[in-house]
Amino acid sequence: MLKVGLTGSIGSGKSTIAGVFRVLGIPVYLADEEARKILNHPEVVKMVSCEFGSSLVNPDGQIDRRALAAEVFTDVVKLGKLNAIVHPRVRTHFTEWIGKMENVPYILQEAAIMYESGFSVFFDKIIVVAAPVEERIARVIKRDEMTRQEVLDRMDKQWSEEKKLERADYVIFNSEHSQAIPQVLEIHEHLNSISQNFN
């Protein structure tokens, strides 16, 4: 089965693009969403509490994600420790998920740090969603109610858009002045045509 990765910098519109592929009937695995769920597994809560302090755990036993983000996105070592807890569990879940897929030309995983985590090697093709930096910043500020500096801190922990584009098999430009859907349809058609080579 053809495995396709969908990534892009924060605020590029990956989730929107993933939604278009889903409408086209393609199974989409949302790695970042799964990571958020995994963060609240009891064993993971315990590991995060031990590593970063019990103050990050709310009274209901759930991780305070905003506090955790403030803790790790300003410290590359701490971010690496968090990723070492979460990423292997996401990979295991993804492997189980893909094993259930049948009679589809390809599957798609959306993930923010596909290259940075080394997970890109698991995919046959990679799509990168690109958008102008100021548009990306504005989207994240509006969506997540973050400050500009918080957005820049997160961007600083990700590969640059240019570096991702150099490694992309396909690029979707998702700015206010570009039409993303025709680009998705063209890529979808091409992936369908080559999918038989990956059975």
Quick summary:
By secondary structure, the chain is α/β, with parallel strands linked by helices. The chain is 52% helix and 13% strand. The chain has helices at 14-23, 31-38, 42-52, 65-72, 76-98, 133-144, 148-156, 161-167, 180-194, and strands at 2-8, 28-30, 106-110, 125-130, 170-173.
How would you describe what is shown here?
With 199 residues, the chain is an alpha/beta fold. It has two domains: 124 residues, Rossmann fold; 69 residues, Rossmann fold (3-Layer(aba) Sandwich). It is built from nine helices and five strands, in the order E-H-E-H-H-H-H-E-E-H-H-H-E-H. It has a five-stranded parallel sheet with strand order 2-3-1-4-5, sandwiched between helices. Helix 2 packs across helix 5 and helix 3 runs antiparallel to helix 5. It is globular. 24% of the residues are buried.
Please report the distance between the alpha carbons of the first and last residues: 5 Å
Portion in strands = 5-15%
- Helicity level, as a percent range? 40-55%
Characterize the biggest β-sheet.
5 strands, parallel
CATH architecture assignment of the largest domain:
3-Layer(aba) Sandwich
For this structure, the CATH topology of the largest domain is Rossmann fold
Number of separate domains: 2
CATH superfamily of the largest domain: P-loop containing nucleotide triphosphate hydrolases
Extended strand count? 5
Spans of at least 5 consecutive residues whose pLDDT stays below 50 are: none
The H/E string reads EHEHHHHEEHHHEH
Q: Radius of gyration, rounded?
A: 17 Å
Content-based structural category: alpha/beta
User: Given the C-alpha coordinates, what overall shape results?
Assistant: globular
Provide a count of the helices: 9
Strand order of the largest sheet: 2-3-1-4-5
CATH hierarchy, class of the largest domain: Alpha Beta
* Mean of all residue-level pLDDT scores: 93
